[in-house]
Amino acid sequence: MRCPNGREQRKLDYTLRASIPTEPKGELTLPGAATTITRLGVHEQALTDSIARARRWLVAARRVVVLTGAGCSAESGVPTFRGADGLWRQFRPETLATPEAFARDPKLVWEWYDWRRQRIAEAQPNPGHFALVALEQRLGEGFALFTQNVDGLHERAGNQRVWRLHGDIWLLRCTGCGHQEQNRTTPLPELPPRCGRCGALFRPGVVWFGEPLPADVLQAAFAAARRAEVCLVLGTSSVVYPAALIPRHALEAGARVVEINLEPTELSAQVHLSLRGRTGLLLPRIVQGAE
Ligand SMILES: [Zn+2]
């Protein structure tokens, strides 16, 4: 199958999967920029210059696509899958967020989700979320936010043009009859919860490793990435596929790609600007000129 531009269409794999992380390089040179970022971070003048450059790109842009990941939610206190707070009891989240784990021990998997739901219920959107609301208000339909987060913090902050790549932790989906319902009760009164219509087990309305992402959302993300003039990649390690392809589509199509993350990522060396730091600190400076 060929694209209209004649290039081979990549065979799409909608399955949620993580690539094997590579050791981050000690130093990254940015394409088209004289700035060199070290693992210790750019010094303040270079950071200010980079922020000013990103700000100019955003001000000139009419179409912006945003990809957010766990780092944005972590700044609000939502536990990530990786890092120091990644473990729950003695379990690694990657081993619980699978259909196999649910088939083996639905109660255990639900105990973990019930704990996550409680932590998320206590979390509040942070300044990074609100900067994205300001950006959407400015751009209107030129704005599209695709998130890997299942917590709903973007919507709570006020964003409307949000599409969920990995589902919704507040959605219960029946494994028997397919009935779905929103449920924000924390903690859930009975684990595992059961469908009121047919009595079968509910599962969380999220995408697990090995499961396909919603094809319509992913296609919309790729299309938005290919139309965008600027692509923001925020708080994501860019190792979870296929979401990690979104900025790569934007790069291919000629968008300016700006990454903000605490750590260097597999994407850092390819993007136009890669900033080390918290989205909640840096993004308000880029979007709103906040100091
Ligand atoms: Zn049911």
How would you describe the overall organization of this protein?
- This protein has helices spanning 44-60, 70-74, 93-96, 99-104, 106-122, 127-139, 153-157, 215-227, 245-252, 279-288; strands at 17-18, 27-29, 36-38, 64-68, 143-147, 162-164, 167-174, 180-182, 202-206, 230-234, 240-241, 256-261, 273-276.
- By secondary structure, it is of the alpha/beta class.
- The chain folds into 2 domains: 20-78 and 124-166 and 213-291, 3-Layer(aba) Sandwich (Rossmann fold), CATH 3.40.50.1220; 81-122 and 168-206, SIR2/SIRT2 'Small Domain'.
- A 6-stranded parallel β-sheet has the order 6-5-4-10-12-13, with helices on both faces. A 3-stranded antiparallel β-sheet has the order 8-7-9, covered by helices on one side.
- Helix 1 (44-60) packs across helix 10 (279-288) and helix 8 (215-227) packs parallel to helix 9 (245-252).
- The longest helix is centred in the N-terminal third of the chain and has 17 residues, at 44-60.
- The protein is globular, with a radius of gyration of 19 Å.
- Residues 1-9 and 20-40 have low confidence and may be disordered.
- Zinc ion (ZN) binds at residues 174, 176-177, 179, 195, 197-198, 200.
Figure out the total of helices: 10
Beta percentage is: 15-25%
Mean pLDDT: 88
The largest β sheet comes out as: 6 strands, parallel
Task: Determine Rg (CA atoms, Å).
Answer: 19 Å
What is the number of E strands? 13
CATH class of the largest domain: Alpha Beta
Briefly note the structural class of the backbone. alpha/beta
Give me the side-by-side strand order of the main sheet: 6-5-4-10-12-13
In the predicted model, the low-confidence regions spanning at least 5 consecutive residues are: 1-9, 20-40
Question: Are any ligands bound, and if so which?
Answer: zinc ion
| SSE pattern | EEEHEHHHHHEHEEEEHEEHEEH
Global outline: globular
